[in-house]
Write a structure and sequence with these properties.
Elements lengths: L2 H9 L4 H28 L4 H8 L3 H8 L12
Helix pairs in contact: 1-2, 3-4
């Protein structure tokens, strides 16, 4: 079983300590995956609006959260 699957299962635990720790770990994992995929999208030339549309958030929100990182790759659209 993968770590993510184990965490998802633990998040449903009847023990609040186990469940909350799993939720916290899943939140960290999700944030890491979002950073990786936003950077990937920017390297592929995606605009902030395209990323926001897929994530179902505002362009301003995704830009504010992710624009501070330098992403290597082809030139990016604004």
């Amino acid at each position: 079983m993968s770590q993510a699957t184990e965490l998802a299962a633990a998040a449903g635990s009847s023990d609040p300590r186990v469940g909350l720790r799993a939720v916290h770990a899943l939140r960290r994992l999700l944030e890491t995956l979002e950073v990786i995929q936003v950077d990937n999208a920017r390297r592929h030339g995606w605009s902030w609006q395209e990323i926001a549309d897929v994530l179902e958030v505002s362009r301003q929100g995704v830009h504010k959260k992710h624009a501070g990182r330098v992403v290597a790759g082809p030139s990016r659209k604004a």
